[in-house]
Specification:
- It is built from 10 helices and 11 strands.
- The protein is of the alpha/beta class.
Amino acid sequence: MFSRLFPFLVVVGTLLGVSLPSARADTAEAGTLDRIRAAGAIHLGYRTSSAPFSYVADGRVVGYSHELALRVVDAVRRHLNMPDLPVRLVPITSKNRALLIENGRIDLECGSTTHSRAREEGADFSVTIFVAGIRLLTRKDSGIRDFDDLAGRRVVTTAGTTSERLLRRRVRTDDVMLVTAGDHADSFAVFQSGRADAFAMDDVLLFSELAKAETPKDWIVTGTPQAFQAYACMMKNDDQAFKRVVDAALAETMTSGEAERIYARWFTQPIPPHGLNVGLPLSDAMRALYAAPNDEPLQ
């Protein structure tokens, strides 16, 4: 009805000197920045056990990705001129993060999410914040040294990840027995208990789990890296205004040298809650990323 009356109302409004809103004004979906302003808070998704990226330690959300997300929060506060804008933290998993972004329950999530071309159909991604490759964590005496050694073995990985999709293909061709768990900590628990012969996941996450093991000398991270991945922050699709604020904040953090200091804090030094050290120095690929930030997926 409104669409049929709108041309007439425009004419009347013009004659009366009244400015009317466009016909789309009431139906257009509010952008993320508008939604944050209206809500009076920004909602960040966080992972509970994806150390050292995003996890809970001593009752607080911490990690490399979480620190970068807080730099974005500062940029949003400046952009909206809301210096006291509060942060609402929402726990997420690999399975529900995309849905929570899509339905607006969270505005941004920065954890260990892979930016792939397939995922671009349902969400937008920031500039890359980390580069990883899928490898294997196994016992030193398991006889497993690469992915070709998995035939007839039981392998665990985290549900809803790129690693799971990779292994699903091998299940069909190499007789791999696949087990999935809800989060990285659960996957490691399955592996460490002997219910799986190997744990397949992004190498940096395997190193972080290895650092938490009771007997790390018994395990080894091995295998030719598969499917190099670009981690990025996920946000709602087709919201360029918000993406520009996010990307600018992250790029400034990287090119200023601050991101390298944040990286050192989480990958080369003892981290909470138990003072473990992942022991992963900054790679050449990460150094190049910090010098020239980009949002290109690697698969």
